[in-house]
Design brief:
- By secondary structure, the protein is α+β, with helices and mostly antiparallel strands.
- It contains 11 helices and 17 strands.
- The protein has 2 domains: about 100 residues, OB fold (Dihydrolipoamide Acetyltransferase, E2P); about 220 residues, no CATH class.
- A 5-stranded mixed beta barrel has the order 1-3-4-6-5. The chain has a 4-stranded mixed sheet with strand order 12-15-14-13, with no helix packed on it. A 3-stranded antiparallel sheet has the order 7-8-9.
- Helix 7 packs across helix 8.
- The longest helix has about 35 residues.
- It is globular, with a radius of gyration of 24 Å.
- The structure holds calcium ion (CA) (3 copies).
- The site of one calcium ion (CA) has 7 residues, from helix 7.
- It holds the Pfam family Endonuclease_1.
- It comes from Plantactinospora endophytica.
- Keywords: Hydrolase, Nuclease.
């Protein structure tokens, strides 16, 4: 008797908890399925002319005639061209999108040239425009792609139920690394080296001045328009030095936005291809940074950023594609091997400088607007020690 009673009491006590857990599970499962509205590729929209639908693609220019799309010096806000790759120049692979008055302020290229290379999702009538495969009379235009909302992303903190990281739940060490590799290489896309310029103007925008980007090591806020190769310009710093694996600037690790940052041309050259470690003498043009013959120590505010970028590269590139298997190691000996040091220092830096809103926003934007993949260590810095500690 008493046993039954206590069982019943136990049941009464746990039922609300069970219901709450079920409700949470339904909520978590339900949200992504609602967001997963069918979005077609540009190729599908070209072959599906005569119907209507929702298309996601990269902004590749402004159409001005049937076979002419301009990529700079935009002359109007009334049309843009979409493609399935940000590097597309062949107009046969593009969809010409009519931008009606309601959308011109946000999506016209003359007003918003930085849209080049970004993804947008458009709903409308799939019909010829400029005597070319097109989409007219849009009823919705949003920044970002397909099944993901434009500027939101999976929660940056949270438990193992996070949908994006579901396959990594409960894992540690090598099996966590393998799960994360699969997660961040499934459905990801890459930008080409030219598109990196415009992407960095978005991902590294100065929160206090939308005309500027923040330079990684020097911390300087500099005009977005000063990108280039001359003194006083900023350029595309490969935090994982290109020579460590010799992957160059073909679309792949050399264009992966998760480790590319704007930096002053001369500071970038001074860092060169050095490994990362503590120590050295101060770098006058980049306050807070130090360097010696074989290593570079970034300023305190970006030490963790640097660590998480290197560790991302080690997990993202495992040699299963045409690129080398990149790995972090404990050396600062440089060389062309696909290795980058110094792991023990990087793990310290990851702990000292946790992700802040700038780094999280950057990760969100790369995920939603460019590569459809995330840096897991920005979302879960604790995973660095689980895998590499
Ligand atoms: Ca050193
Ligand atoms: Ca930081
Ligand atoms: Ca690797």
């Amino acid at each position: 008797m008493s046993g039954k009673l206590s069982n019943r009491r136990l049941l009464a006590a746990t039922t609300p908890i069970v219901l709450a857990v079920l409700a949470l599970a339904v909520t978590l499962v339900g949200v992504p399925s609602v967001q997963a509205a069918a979005s077609m590729t540009v190729a599908q929209a070209i072959s599906g002319q005569g119907s209507s639908g929702t298309v996601t693609g990269y902004v590749v220019g402004q159409p001005t005639a049937t076979n002419t799309v301009i990529r700079s010096g935009f002359t109007g806000d009334t049309a843009l061209a979409l493609a399935d790759s940000s590097g597309t120049t062949n107009t046969n692979s593009m969809l010409y999108v009519q931008i009606t008055a309601a959308y011109r302020t946000q999506f016209g290229l003359q007003s918003n040239p930085s849209l080049m290379g970004r993804t947008i999702t458009v709903t409308g009538s799939l019909e010829a425009y400029f005597a070319h495969a097109g989409l007219k009379s849009p009823t919705s235009m949003i920044l970002g792609g397909g099944t993901t909302p434009p500027t939101t992303a999976p929660p940056s903190s949270g438990g193992p139920l996070e949908p994006y990281y579901a396959a990594a739940a409960g894992k540690t060490g090598e099996s966590l690394k393998n799960a994360l590799h699969t997660i961040i290489t499934t459905g990801d896309t890459a930008v080409n080296y030219d598109a990196v310029w415009n992407a960095l103007k978005v991902t590294d925008q100065d929160p206090a001045n939308s005309n500027n980007v923040i330079l990684l090591y020097s911390g300087i806020s500099r005009s977005k328009s000063l990108n280039g190769g001359n003194t006083g310009n900023w350029n595309r710093e490969h935090v994982w030095a290109q020579s460590h694996g010799d992957f160059g600037t073909g679309t792949g690790p050399g264009t992966d936005l998760h480790h590319l940052r704007p930096e002053d041309v001369q500071v970038n050259a001074t860092r060169g291809n050095k490994d990362f470690d503590n120590g050295g003498t101060a770098v006058p043009s980049a306050p807070g940074n130090k360097t010696d013959s074989d290593s570079w120590e970034p300023r305190a505010a970006v030490k963790g950023d640097v660590a998480r970028m290197i560790l991302y590269m080690a997990v993202r590139y495992e040699g299963g594609d045409s690129f080398p298997d990149l790995e972090a190691d404990h050396a600062t000996s440089g060389g062309s091997g696909p290795r980058h040091g110094k792991l023990s220092t990087l793990l310290q830096w990851n702990a000292q400088d946790p992700p802040d809103s700038f780094e999280r926003r950057r990760n969100d934007l790369i995920y939603s607007n460019y590569q459809r993949n995330r840096n897991p260590f920005v979302d879960h810095p604790e995973w660095a020690n689980s895998i590499f500690g």
